[in-house]
Write a structure and sequence with these properties.
Layout (H helix, E strand, L loop, with lengths): L2 H20 L5 E9 L6 E10 L8 E3 L4 E8 L1 E6 L5 E4 L3 E4 L4 E7 L6 E10 L6 E3 L1
Antiparallel strand pairs: 1-2, 2-9, 3-8, 3-10, 4-7, 4-9, 5-6, 5-8
């Protein structure tokens, strides 16, 4: 390979790596528990911890059609916008909810320097999957 071709290959790799690094990191979801509700046949309680690195965000999404979600911010600050409501920043100890079928347009860490975590608790039809559907 000529020096010119090698240099072009190195520069192309650097541009691709730089573009990937420019993308904000995503969130990670960790299932915490699933339990059928004995007094509500056909429904289950599902808890998922969502962790956002600094600057992290989730893609716009909806949840399973049967899902009612209660979200509690465990640490940091999370900006959320559900349905037609304005976006809002929720800090540790605050909570919000999503009704079945709601569109979650914004879900991101409000900080570029500190991580954030929330606990999402779903009341959902047992077996309704997937729980999160990206746009």
């Amino acid at each position: 390979m000529s020096i010119k071709k090698a240099l072009i290959a190195v520069l192309a790799a650097a541009v691709i790596a730089g573009a990937a690094a420019a993308q904000p990191p995503g969130s990670t979801s960790t299932p915490k528990f699933t339990h059928p509700l004995p007094n509500v046949p056909g429904k289950s309680l599902v808890a998922v911890e969502v962790a956002y690195p600094p600057g992290g965000k989730s893609a716009p999404h909806r949840h399973a059609g049967s899902a009612f979600i209660y979200a509690y911010v465990l640490s940091g600050a999370i900006e959320s916008q559900v349905g037609d409501a304005p976006s809002r920043v929720f800090t540790a100890g605050e909570s919000f909810f999503e009704e079945p079928g709601a569109h979650h347009g914004i879900s991101r860490n409000a900080s570029a320097t500190e991580p954030a975590r929330l606990l999402a608790v779903f009341v959902v039809d047992t077996g309704d999957q997937p729980l999160t559907i990206p746009d």
